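Thread title: Can someone regenerate the structure for this chain?

I was given the following input by a collaborator and told the matching structure tokens would be attached. They weren't. Posting the sequence so someone can regenerate them.
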Amino acid sequence: MKTIPRGLLAFSIFCLIRAGAWAAELEALVTQDKPAADLKQGAAASRTDSLLSRYLITVTDDFIVAAYHNGELIPEEQRELLLDRFGASVERINVEVRSGDWLVFNVVHNPKRWDASKYFAVAGCLAHNEFAFTSDPASSNWSFCDDPTKAVKFIKQRNAGRAVRALEIDKPWSEGNDFIRNFAGDDFGGKPLWGRERSTWIKFVALKSAEEEEREKVVVEKKKDSVPSKLELATPKRWPMQVLSAEYGTGGKDADVTAKVKDYLETQQRPFSSDP
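Best answer:
Regenerated them for you:
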């Protein structure tokens, strides 16, 4: 390998690294645009394929304070009050739920009303009487959080608090089952559930199938592979390279070595080193 004068030592190494970075970035832009687009389209297709329900029907005694989808507050415009029954409520929430999504509902009841009875049931619907999921205290998909200090984490993180299974209601509102079947469909086979306190947060997690988990893993790995590492950025794999300027300075003296460095990197297209 050819040796160049000592004066190029510091900046030649710097230029080599910068040129390598420029080449790697250019390669990423040229060769990875299409795969990146394919990944994006693939993710969108996966989201469409994994659709479970188009809307929710909820029956609550007394009412839902707030509802969240994947950690984000569901806007009031997407919540439609279908019935107000002496303070108890039936809602249609227009939000699509897909595999891997999670929902959280902050529900409350007044223990001084109706002999302390309460009720909360959910139906995830594709259409009337077509259910993707229903509330069920026996299912590990449903959990609760009574602690306001833990509620934010419970809402924001998919798996936070999932070990605390939602509870069956001792005194369910007597009209609740009739209303959920009336508005969601007669084949509703779910059950109402709650936490331990008058105000609680109920979570539903739409578990993914093994096939979906594997497909998501592959997509994540492809995305990781598409990002060049620091070593790749510092090690050029393809030409051309462009050197804008190269200078060496020590002891207050600067030397313009652009021509020599350009000759090695742009003309001869070869790496080089400096003999100290």
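DSSP finds six helices and 18 strands in the chain.
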